[in-house]
Amino acid sequence: xxxxxxxxxxxxxxxxxxxxxxxxxxxxxxxxxxxxxxxxxxxxxxxxxxxxxxxxxxxxxxxxxxxxxxxxxxxxxxxxxxxxxxxxxxxxxxxxxxxxxxxxxxxxxxxxxxxxxxxxxxxxxxxxxxxxxxxxxxxxxxxxxxxxxxxxxxxxxxxxxxxxxxxxxxxxxxxxxxxxxxxxxxxxxxxxxxxxxxxxxxxxxxxxxxxxxxxxxxxxxxxxxxxxxxxxxxxxxxxxxxxxxxxxxxxxxxxxxxxxxxxxxxxxxxxxxxxxxxxxxxxxxxxxxxxxxxxxxx
Length: 298
Ligand code: SF4
Description:
This protein has helices spanning 23-31, 39-42, 68-85, 119-126, 134-140, 161-179, 183-186, 236-250, 265-270; strands at 2-5, 35-37, 52-55, 58-61, 89-92, 104-105, 113-114, 131-133, 153-157, 195-202, 205-216, 219-227, 255-261, 274-282, 287-294.
């Protein structure tokens, strides 16, 4: 059963007293039994309410009042309902301090974002429930305006120095800076001869990338899949991986291998990858799980 952010199903529970109803999600909620929750309302906050953002681990509303306890209380109540109903998947409202997945506002009320989960989304993911934003859900059912429809977006097989520099820029900004990873750790021995890169640009500005290199016996490792925080939730990670797979097929490779972070296993499953043996690979920054995909079937 899905747990869904209540505002996505058309309920006016947002801070501004409005909803963010998505027709396909409203339809899903009519068709199937789903659990609709608004963690902020469950936490006792009124509607409408003063907007809040997370800063340095606390939730503050725009007037500076600390509302962390209400956010935590509401998220815990929503999680208890998820457990009671046996929810196994989540569709959560993008960018919200409660429901946002992978990206939320930066706590400065200036429209900027940081890479992080909202309070409820964090609990959902830690409980092992795969979660997607409304945009990702629409993409998964083929309803979203595809990234390729965005003007100025280009998917590039990065063979020139300029394009490779673009790929490196995305990694420095999206991983190195966001996760405090040193240049030496981010750029390892595989970033050299024999490695190829995919780059996506938006009006020539680099925004997403991945790399791949040969493992031998017709297999290649795809990795360092990075999308700049402000471009997440638009299917660009999927796009770079699919382009890498196409390129690998063109080069005659038969199998693509990834070492996925635990939070990304579902992302790769949706792309047709399967977990090989489930062994956790302990890396310097993240623990990963090896997955692979037979390219001859795609
Ligand atoms: S807390 Fe979640 S469900 Fe409630 S209004 Fe915000 S995004 Fe929607």
